[in-house]
Specification:
3 copies of one chain form a homotrimer. Chain A is an alpha/beta fold and 255 residues long. Helices cover 54% and strands 15% of the residues of chain A. Chain A has a 9-stranded mixed β-sheet with strand order 2-1-3-4-5-6-7-8-9, sandwiched between helices. In chain A, helix 1 crosses helix 9, helix 2 runs parallel beside helix 10 and helix 9 crosses helix 10.
Chain lengths: 255, 255, 255
């Protein structure tokens, strides 16, 4: 499958485009993740904005190149902002859904299901969240089916990441266990999917690229970190300094 | 008093239990502290969640092993969330109160007093906050009396920490001045009390353990830090890597 | 112009006063910036508070030595808080306005213009924000005129910073490109203006000092950083450790 073999180079190329074009990524994200997410986007070369105020968000989304909808700390103001943002985004602004903790709260699961029907270009989540949303455990087959049914791309992160659309599925074996010891790492990965969607029309490429880039950056950072605190700073450093040679050398894309 | 002499080993044992059981700690905490608090809990081995949305918080607290109620940036949504969370916690989920800046705002002081009557297992605060709440300066005797009157444990942090219940009081002489130069350090300490309460039924042990662990981690981090920025990262590294030998060797528990 | 030549020494003196007096700076600021802003103020020696709750903010501002009004993530609660805070501040508590992203949202631009009429002692912004607010591109002449018309001080940050009041204008050539790769760096600079206003009656001196201090700290941090993650920690370390000799040696104040 040549598409898979190309992914490391495609990822490096997408990162180069982000750095050149500096896309604006508007993020509706949870209060815990806002700062780290903004710094991850800046480290990649994108320009974050974060307002959720109902009278401002349409202006921000209309001027954005991608949109992140993250369901963490989902209060009434964020719900309202999400409605306006998705309506404003329409077909022009690609958006990615991160259904954080959808396995912990029934109202949130219902809201997430309604959002999936609004056609996000990609959904980034973990195994528990996928199970809650799709009604069964994650597997390459289950991801492909869910992606096909909802006309989207699923990017599942965990010990190994999987990215699927209706016809393509790939496993990414990058990353480091310290990534699960820093809050908002998954949220930041979703924002990075948004940055990649801003410069790459193929949402499967964009989602895989984001997970490859953050995974490779995580491995580079883990080699220099003394624990989760220095790792959180180090992954920003690594993403900021990532070059094509490192991406191609370290990306572990498997069938 | 053998209980006091045991505290370093008890603290190491509580940390081992957190790492083994990965308790869920739901945090209602201020916007400034959310990220650092989540990272501190992850560094200890616990699993944080942070929503304050009124239609979700009962689901989160019902599935949690401990609850943190922190009064910083106390807006109407947080007040409402606190009511639901405490009612949901009932007797099953232990909770810790952090009455941040209760000395600066009369409405907050009144709200905090009402919460103390709801029986938190522990209260973590500083000297100014204790004075505002208890109506007089902090001393071993004042702490013991306040703890007895309110059937709780008081964990007071400062140059030296004190932990008291109705019959036991101990001084902990760990920590470093850089801890006061990182925002949300006290808030994170309170969250760590929550993590300890999740795995230790004796709330006095749990509160003392949390303050010993963060104090010892702070000393280890200070030795490698170049200022408050690297210190904030370093204390997460240190807590993540803390072993029994270091805890027992460095804990300074005094009468 | 002797005033300009004095600025490095004046800046060092203002920092010494912040460390000695530990002024309280109440910050109404955006959710992304709260943590980093609080840590920047602590690193400088000031004491931050951050509540935006409408029934508490008057108590906090009444006990504060300076106020920051930052328009990021401007929701209805923050708008309400700003009204109360400015009314409480009156003439006694100096305040600084940071009209974040005023170029991206028409309602925000209108709100910002109304706030300028309330006489902030200083306004800290970037070039795009100045253009949106003043109706034309930034230049020494445009800044001076805007400052005169509005009886305030304008602190404009960018590749080179400019600080102007009705009669004085100065260029500061400190800083490092990594400063634009860390979210909330400008917001934190505005908070530092607040801390300087708390101890220095001449708002032009205070604003210039804040930008010199953060710029010199940024250069020191850049020399040791491996990217934006370690830089964010390093600038806090550098500000915390800044001494008079370094400030005087490194400050690049130009006409």
């Amino acid at each position: 499958m040549p598409a898979r073999r190309d992914l490391p180079l495609v990822s490096a190329d997408i990162l180069a485009r982000i750095r050149a074009r500096r896309p604006r990524v508007h993020c509706i994200t949870n209060a815990v993740a806002q700062n780290f997410t903004a710094n991850m986007l800046l480290a990649a070369g994108a320009v974050p904005s974060m307002t959720i105020a109902s009278d401002e968000i349409a202006d921000f989304v209309a001027r954005a190149d991608a949109l992140l909808v993250n369901l963490g700390t989902l209060d009434p103001e964020r719900r309202g902002a999400i409605e306006i943002a998705i309506a404003t985004a329409g077909e022009r602004v690609p958006w990615v859904l991160d259904p954080v903790f959808v396995d912990r709260s029934a109202p949130r699961a219902g809201f997430a299901a309604a959002l999936v029907a609004r056609r996000p270009r990609a959904i980034r989540l973990n195994g528990a969240e996928f199970s809650a949303l799709a009604g069964g455990p994650a597997s390459p087959h289950a991801l492909t089916r869910y992606a096909a049914e909802n006309a989207t791309v699923v990017g599942l992160t965990g010990d190994r990441d999987m990215v699927a659309d209706a016809t393509r599925v790939v496993t990414i074996a990058n990353g480091d266990p310290l990534m699960s010891k820093v809050t908002a790492m998954g949220c930041a990965a979703s924002a990075l999917v948004g940055a990649c969607l801003a410069v790459e029309a193929d949402a499967w490429n964009a989602t895989a690229a984001a997970l490859i880039l953050i995974g490779v950056a995580g491995e580079a950072a883990a080699g220099r970190a003394q624990g989760p605190g220095t790792f959180a700073a180090g992954i920003l450093d690594a993403l900021h300094g990532l070059d094509q040679a490192t991406i191609v050398e370290r990306a572990r894309v498997e069938s």
